[in-house]
């Protein structure tokens, strides 16, 4: 375990990613404590509308006079919550399906993998939009739609690893000793397959934040007045070019967060699979 | 080669069938009365009844599916609840604009991305390499819609170098529609003013759409070239006195593009998805903005048709990617 | 008559993560015109680095600390990369690599690759080049030479590929050919055929051949002269027959004793080759030498001569 951590520590971009992710998590968790105007999650101060960045408002104020700096901080919570939920649910669906398909084989396996292919055949955003629209747009349906489009990634990975592992010697040995299927799959195969899953989950978190921002932008994310990065950018459009700060800072927050997850995910991937290591 | 393509086409049929099943099931998803949902909020009872008949909603499920397949095979995707025109007609009319934008974005991504990736690999671990890697990481992390707005803010609003939205200045008379592609139609009609103005309108959307692809292609080309440079035949070619530029750009590059081509294929998904957002922000009259309009107006027929279209295009692109892989590395075709 | 190739006192150091590695430390060899010189040594003795140094393709982390490489009276080490590429590679020094499958670019036709070399290094039109290649392939006994150029590397057998590469090496009529263990990847019968072929070609085309190998059996079959390298140093050099009949340096004697044809046991040479990162101060072979005596581990021996005239780096002969 330790030499792996040391190797990760030497990877500068991955460490940067880790630092960013930890920073964002901290901001999300401590949100209301860090924001100078925590009440601006809902309150409005029309006398302060559209003030440029300056004293007291490092990111300026929005069209309802709310402090953008605070709302960006508070928005981190929503973004992370959505990302964790979506990826979590996708894992809950995808990993068991992958284990099942990989270990059992036969027509069940074929069916699962065909369905996986089909869902992967449609770009995530389009499918999520179609689903969300059909199920009446709201934050919950958006999250469900995103989970339903992301699980195939996990299934594919776990399927590959399970197949590879189930034909390996140590599984034969376990079967020879009489270990039951459940025991083999959950105690032995799953731990070995978990590393690429973690890599994919990390990258998935970043990707989900992006897609969730798009949905927020399209009005299918959090309902106002809840702070939401994508929604803020959508709102800001009416007030451009004068209130440039309104659109810029939430976007930078998205950029930074997603970059952090991507860098970390890349670093983890280099650790986990040196065979296909991206030549750094 | 023909056999190779044929085999790939045959292999993709189950997925297409599955796609049809999925869209069919989506008709029934989440609502008690599919006919009403399809017809839209402003539909009259007669319209709803007519739809019910067309789709056979009172019949058993498998009969409905056959009816559905029948309609799809005739390219009948129903009528848009918003425009009241056949969806197929709307899509066909808007398709060229989307293709133009997608093509422009691809030209940008590949035309800049591959050379930059090669340059980064050749100048491995020097400052241009680090800079390109940083920009690539940022390029993938950027939210396209935000980037679009930033570009608009900077180039259209502040500097006024480029137009803010649309595909042509509102004061210009559009050339007669021959191909549907405005660039071509302008050339055919000899309207150079239209040609250049349209090009100006194409810049910001294409740059926005192409950014993610550019970053990805730089990344994967760089990795591919670095991997190839470690192979023995590069050493041999150097020993035999191959000239360096040709060595890199011809003999190394062809070996390095496998992963990049795969990514370009996957990019298509991103281009289609990104196209939705970019088109709506820039008011580009293509399928993307059509989709957003459908979302906002709850136009289900359109959403289903677009989903089907997108899935099919994606499958076709995957076949194309396999073909290009085969062209790059002749060994693959023999194994097929 | 000046030798075709005369390497003197070559010292090459490579920067690694663990410090500088003295891969070559005083390597010398002489290849006379029209003869075949075998360079023998175990894996890791620096043979590949030597070849790379001669051809000017050392890795970026390598630096030539000392020595000269005299090729037909010119010191190759002062040539720039552009000069080497334009004037020396392929046109004056040909190269036969070790693994014919890995050496060829897998996604281009064989003809494209061979013609690319001739385009820049051989006079004449493309048609002339094709004609010459077909002639060479026929001489190498590659079946169906005209169509061979249209095929891909993976469509040939190992032996045929090696013949292709020999043809490539000769395509621009060089005077010197460097062969890097070209028979290692082949089975014994094919190996024998290739060695015979090389012998014939040397005589026929008036070549001088530098043949690097780790196999004494091959050396005995092919080479006129011999140069034995241990841990980056030349330890014995001279006519092959003289050395094989009466090896002087303890390392050479031990190596020959280990050869499958002569060995009486599985022991091999006890001990390990000193790492290029930590070369001992005295004689590099002292720790494993059967004739070691006092003083060997302290001072490096200089080059001496055996009774037969063979050069030996051992304190017994200085």
Write the layout of secondary structure elements.
The complex is a heterotrimer of chains A (280), B (336) and C (318).
Chain A: H1 2-10, H2 12-29, H3 31-34, H4 68-104, H5 106-121, H6 124-134, H7 139-166, H8 169-177, H9 181-217, H10 229-236, H11 244-272
Helix pairs in contact in A: 2-4, 2-11, 4-5, 4-7, 4-9, 4-11, 5-7, 6-7, 7-9, 9-10, 9-11, 10-11
Chain B: H1 2-28, H2 34-39, H3 45-55, H4 61-73, H5 87-122, H6 127-141, H7 144-158, H8 182-188, H9 192-229, H10 232-239, H11 244-256, H12 258-282, H13 287-297, H14 300-328, H15 330-335
Helix pairs in contact in B: 1-14, 5-6, 5-9, 5-12, 6-9, 7-9, 7-12, 8-9, 9-11, 9-12, 12-13, 12-14, 13-14
Chain C: E1 5-16, E2 19-31, E3 36-40, H1 47-55, E4 62-71, E5 74-75, H2 81-88, E6 93-96, H3 100-103, H4 110-121, H5 126-139, H6 145-148, H7 158-170, E7 176-180, H8 188-205, E8 208-213, H9 216-222, E9 225-230, E10 233-239, H10 240-245, H11 250-258, E11 304-305, E12 311-312
Parallel strand pairs in C: 3-8, 3-9, 6-7, 7-8
Antiparallel strand pairs in C: 1-2, 1-4, 4-5, 9-10, 10-12, 11-12
Helix pairs in contact in C: 4-5
Outline the structure in words.
The complex is a heterotrimer of chains A (280), B (336) and C (318). With 280 residues, chain A is an all-alpha fold. Chain A has one domain (80-278): MetI-like (MetI-like fold, Orthogonal Bundle). Helices cover 74% and strands 0% of the residues of chain A. Chain A contains eleven helices and no strands. Chain A has helices at 2-10, 12-29, 31-34, 68-104, 106-121, 124-134, 139-166, 169-177, 181-217, 229-236, 244-272. The two termini of chain A are 22 Å apart. The model of chain A is unreliable at 276-280 (pLDDT under 50). Chain B has a domain at 92-257 and 273-287: MetI-like fold. Chain B is 77% helix and 0% strand. Chain B is built from 15 helices and no strands. The longest helix of chain B has 38 residues, at 192-229. The model of chain B has no long low-confidence stretch (mean pLDDT 83). Chain C has two domains: 5-92 and 174-317, 3-Layer(aba) Sandwich (Rossmann fold), CATH 3.40.50.300; 108-173, no CATH class. Chain C has 318 residues and is an alpha/beta fold. In chain C, helix 4 crosses helix 5 (126-139). In chain C, the strands form two sheets. Chain C has an eight-stranded mixed beta sheet with strand order 6-7-8-3-9-10-12-11, sandwiched between helices. In chain C, strands 2-1-4-5 form a four-stranded antiparallel beta sheet, covered by helices on one side. Helices cover 33% and strands 23% of the residues of chain C. Chain C is built from eleven helices and twelve strands. Chain C is globular and about 65 Å long. The longest helix of chain C has 18 residues, at 188-205. Chain C starts with a strand and ends in a 6-residue tail after the last strand. In chain C, strand 1 (5-16) and strand 2 form a beta hairpin. The interface between A and B is large, with 49 and 57 residues.
């Amino acid at each position: 375990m330790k030499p792996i951590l040391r190797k990760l520590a030497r990877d500068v971009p991955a460490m940067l990613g880790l630092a960013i992710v930890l920073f964002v998590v901290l901001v999300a968790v401590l949100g209301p404590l860090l924001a100078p105007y925590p009440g601006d999650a809902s309150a409005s101060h029309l006398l302060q509308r559209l003030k440029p960045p300056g004293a007291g408002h490092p990111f300026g104020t929005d069209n309802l006079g709310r402090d953008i700096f605070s709302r960006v901080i508070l928005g981190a919570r929503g973004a992370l919550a959505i990302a964790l939920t979506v990826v979590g649910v996708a894992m809950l669906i995808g990993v068991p399906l992958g284990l099942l398909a990989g270990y059992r084989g036969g027509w069940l396996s074929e069916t699962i993998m065909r369905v996986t292919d089909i869902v992967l055949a449609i770009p995530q955003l389009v499918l999520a939009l179609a689903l969300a629209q059909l199920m009446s747009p709201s934050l919950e349906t958006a999250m469900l739609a995103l989970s339903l489009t992301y699980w195939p990634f996990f299934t594919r990975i776990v399927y590959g690893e399970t197949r590879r592992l189930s034909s390996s010697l140590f599984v034969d040995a376990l079967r020879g000793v009489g270990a039951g299927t459940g025991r083999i799959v959950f105690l032995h195969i799953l731990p070995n397959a978990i590393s690429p899953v973690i890599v994919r989950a990390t990258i998935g978190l970043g990707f989900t934040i992006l897609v969730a921002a798009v949905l927020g932008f399209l009005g299918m994310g959090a309902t106002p007045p809840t702070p939401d990065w994508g929604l803020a950018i959508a709102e800001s459009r009416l007030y451009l070019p004068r209130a440039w700060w309104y659109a810029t800072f939430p976007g930078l927050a998205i950029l930074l967060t997603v970059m952090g997850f991507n860098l970390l995910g890349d670093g983890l991937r280099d650790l986990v699979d040196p065979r296909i290591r991206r030549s750094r | 080669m023909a056999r190779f393509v044929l085999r790939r086409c045959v292999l993709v049929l189950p997925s297409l069938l599955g796609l049809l099943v999925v869209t069919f099931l989506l008709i029934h998803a989440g609502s008690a009365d599919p006919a009403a949902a399809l017809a839209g909020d402003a539909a009259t009872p007669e319209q709803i009844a007519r739809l019910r008949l067309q789709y056979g909603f009172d019949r058993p499920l498998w009969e409905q599916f056959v009816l559905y397949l029948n309609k799809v095979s005739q390219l009948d995707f129903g009528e848009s609840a918003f425009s009241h025109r056949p969806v197929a007609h709307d899509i066909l009319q808007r398709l060229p604009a989307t293709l133009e934008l997608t093509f422009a974005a691809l030209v940008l991504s590949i035309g800049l991305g591959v050379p930059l990736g090669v340059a980064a690999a050749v100048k491995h671990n020097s400052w241009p390499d680090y800079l390109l890697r940083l920009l690539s990481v940022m390029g993938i992390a950027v939210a396209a819609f935000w980037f679009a707005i930033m570009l608009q803010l900077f180039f259209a609003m502040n500097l006024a170098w480029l137009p803010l939205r649309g595909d042509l200045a509102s004061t210009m008379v559009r050339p007669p529609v021959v191909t549907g592609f405005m660039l071509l139609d302008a050339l055919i009609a000899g309207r150079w003013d239209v040609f250049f103005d349209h090009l100006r309108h194409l810049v910001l959307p294409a740059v926005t759409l192409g950014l993610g692809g550019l970053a990805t292609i730089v990344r994967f080309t760089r990795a591919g070239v670095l991997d190839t440079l470690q192979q023995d035949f590069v050493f041999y070619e150097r020993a035999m006195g191959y000239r360096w530029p040709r060595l890199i750009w011809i003999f190394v590059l062809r070996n390095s593009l496998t992963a990049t081509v795969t990514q370009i294929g996957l990019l298509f998904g991103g281009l289609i998805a990104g196209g939705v957002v970019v088109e709506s922000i820039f008011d580009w009259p293509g399928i993307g903005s059509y989709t957003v309009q459908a979302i906002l107006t709850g136009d289900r027929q359109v959403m289903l048709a677009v989903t089907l279209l997108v899935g099919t295009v994606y499958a076709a692109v995957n076949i194309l990617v396999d073909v290009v892989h085969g062209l790059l590395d002749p060994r693959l075709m023999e194994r097929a | 008559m000046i030798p075709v190739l005369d390497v003197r006192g070559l010292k090459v150091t490579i920067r690694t993560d663990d410090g500088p590695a003295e891969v070559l430390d005083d390597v010398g060899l002489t290849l006379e015109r029209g003869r075949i010189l075998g360079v023998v040594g175990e894996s890791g003795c620096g043979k590949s680095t030597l070849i790379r140094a001669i051809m000017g393709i050392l890795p970026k982390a390598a630096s030539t600390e000392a020595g000269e490489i005299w090729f037909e009276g010119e010191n190759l080490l002062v040539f720039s990369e552009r000069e080497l590429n334009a004037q020396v590679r392929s046109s004056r020094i040909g190269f036969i690599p070790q693994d014919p499958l890995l050496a060829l670019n897998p996604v281009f036709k064989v003809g494209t690759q061979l013609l690319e070399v001739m385009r820049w290094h051989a006079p004449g039109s493309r048609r002339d080049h094709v004609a010459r290649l077909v002639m060479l392939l026929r001489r190498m006994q590659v079946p169906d030479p005209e169509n061979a150029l249209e095929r891909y590397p993976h469509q040939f057998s190992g032996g045929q590929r090696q013949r292709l590469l020999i043809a490539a090496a000769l395509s621009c009529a060089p005077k010197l050919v460097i062969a890097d263990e070209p028979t290692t990847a082949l089975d014994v019968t094919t190996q024998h055929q290739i060695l015979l072929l090389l012998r014939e070609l040397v005589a026929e085309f008036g070549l001088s051949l530098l043949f690097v190998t780790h196999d004494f059996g091959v050396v005995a079959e092919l080479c006129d002269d011999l140069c034995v390298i241990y841990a980056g140093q030349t330890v014995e050099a001279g006519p092959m027959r003289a050395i094989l009949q009466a090896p002087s340096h303890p390392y050479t004697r031990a190596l020959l004793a280990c050869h499958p044809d002569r060995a009486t046991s599985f022991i091999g040479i006890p001990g390990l080759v000193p790492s290029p990162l930590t070369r001992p101060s005295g004689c590099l072979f002292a720790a494993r030498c059967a004739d070691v005596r006092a003083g060997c581990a302290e001072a490096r021996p200089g080059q001496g001569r055996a009774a037969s005239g063979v050069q030996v780096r051992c304190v017994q002969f200085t």
